[in-house]
Amino acid sequence: LRYCQQLQHNGQGATTPPLEASLMNGYDPELWRALQREEFELFYQPRIDLRRGSICGAEALIRWRHPERGLQQPSSFIPACEASGLIVPLGYWIIQEVGKTLPAMKEAGLDGRIGVNLSFRQFQDRYLAPTIERLMQEHLMDTRTLEFELTETALCSDEEHVRSTINQLSNQGVEFSLDDFGTGYSSFSLLQKLPITTLKIDKSFVDGIPGNQDDEEIVRAVINLAHNLNKQVIAEGVETRAQLEFLIRHDCDQVQGYFFSRPVPLDQFLNLLSTNRRQQAL
Ligand code: C2E
Ligand code: MG
Ligand code: MG
Ligand code: MG
Q1: Which of 71, 126, 228, 244 suits 158 as a labelling partner, its CA being 20 to 30 A distant?
Q2: How large is the ipTM?
């Protein structure tokens, strides 16, 4: 966790409490140890551009490779990380990890952005924007390769601070998408006020297409809403050909889901990128 220690020595980026104090601050000791021992791992789920028919980026999704219990899904540990605040240093580890692996992804042909989930809790760190900027500089990350996925809960606390953080990063070229769109309480005014470039239609609506009239209507409405506001739209959780055909017919821009690929470890994602590039060249 060199970057954590560096942050402490650097006054302007003093985002994390000293390591010892962190333990006392109520971080779950097992999860804190997991972070120190680098037991977390990022998987990548490709995003498919429906017009080009090719991979146009990916979402980074965290996993915990527990030494005894094996691979743990985020639902089993992210809530605890959010509750204790460990998501703040973990969130920086995630961005650093993406930064380290971006060169290999570009080498394999990545053409597009990597989506990183940002939890509402991470905005409670006053230094979120400057710390992200520092990590991007340290890892020579092109800001045009990052996209942060926000949920409506992160934005609901209509705080000036949340808005200025997003604006500051957006001015650097980082993009923002609205995750699980339609399941939260966001108002249309948020879409106007914030520099959101992409809406991600929640899987719960995609599950019902084609066939469920309400879900069909909602999916169509979100696609139209996005396009009328000059935004991109991604459908999440696409598992079947019938869903895909519905989305193509209604002009959805991108899809993500098991139909194309589950989230996979980095080496497999690099293979998918290389294969994708070969197919594009044909
Ligand atoms: P999310 O950001 O909405 O991520 C999409 C979830 O849907 C992922 O679950 C993904 O594996 C799953 N998914 C994608 N396509 C399909 C499909 O076709 N069928 C089904 N059944 N599922 C599909 P995962 O990886 O378990 O992540 C769950 C949630 O945990 C994420 O929802 C996100 O809110 C959170 N999360 C994951 N990684 C991170 C992270 O790095 N940081 C933060 N703060 N939260 C994360
Ligand atoms: Mg899962
Ligand atoms: Mg997401
Ligand atoms: Mg989602």
Answers
A1: 228
A2: 0.98
